[in-house]
Amino acid sequence: MKEKKKVFSSWSGGKESCLACYKALSNGFDVSYLLNFVSEDGTRSRAHGISSDLIALQAEAIEIPIIQVKSSWGGYEAKFKEAVEELKKKGVKGGIFGDMDLQEHKEWVDRVCSEVEVASIEPLWGNDPKEILKEFVNTGFKAIVIKVKADLFGKEWVGRELNEQFINDLPEEIHPCGEHGEYHTFVVDGPLFQRRVEIIKSDKKLKDGSWLLDISEYGLSEKVFTQEANVTK
């Protein structure tokens, strides 16, 4: 039996990184680690500004070990390479990324992975963004909106669940997946998850031109698997 290729998943906690990780697992990769970059003081995720502790709890719910690396934006590439070199010592041969259509992002990923001699794997690349959203929802993932640009969205969008109604309500002029930073999500449940992340207490705040969901209390709850779900899992 062919040995599965051991990889890490570049992790933001949002919909694309989650779906890309799921698709990689479905395609036979051994996703052994989640790699997440946080602020220099270690309190916030670099990608979406969400609490680093909440990201760690999400990884606990998924039951894949997470590596959180402190970095400035300026030092990001060097820290990324350093982290991947350490993962290579653990047998990691590649990385999973959630890019879909931003060429400059993919070029950066391909270049940096090439320089540290690991494979760059892009399960979502070239897929239609709206279809990616639909696949995310139809696969059974649950995500909430944690950040939106205030000039594009009202306060009421923050905290919404990413579902079919959300997809239908999205303004025509924005990238459907928010690839230019129009909105960000946090995944709380789905087929990757062994337990569900519960958002217990949160508040909506306006900061630096964006509405944010400031999550102050959270936890994990058990999932209930029906017989049908067990059969189809």
How would you characterize the overall build of this protein?
- There is one protein chain.
- The protein has 233 residues and is of the alpha/beta class.
- The chain has one domain (6-220): HUPs (Rossmann fold).
- The chain is built from 7 helices and 9 strands, in the order E-H-E-H-E-H-E-H-E-H-E-H-E-E-E-H.
- It has helices at 15-26, 52-62, 76-88, 103-115, 129-139, 164-169, 227-232; strands at residues 6-10, 30-38, 66-70, 94-96, 119-121, 142-149, 183-189, 195-207, 210-222.
- A 5-stranded parallel beta sheet has the order 3-2-1-4-5.
- A hairpin with a 2-residue loop joins strand 8 and strand 9.
- The longest helix has 13 residues, at 76-88.
Main features:
233 residues, alpha/beta, Rossmann fold, five-stranded parallel β-sheet, four-stranded antiparallel β-sheet, 28% strand
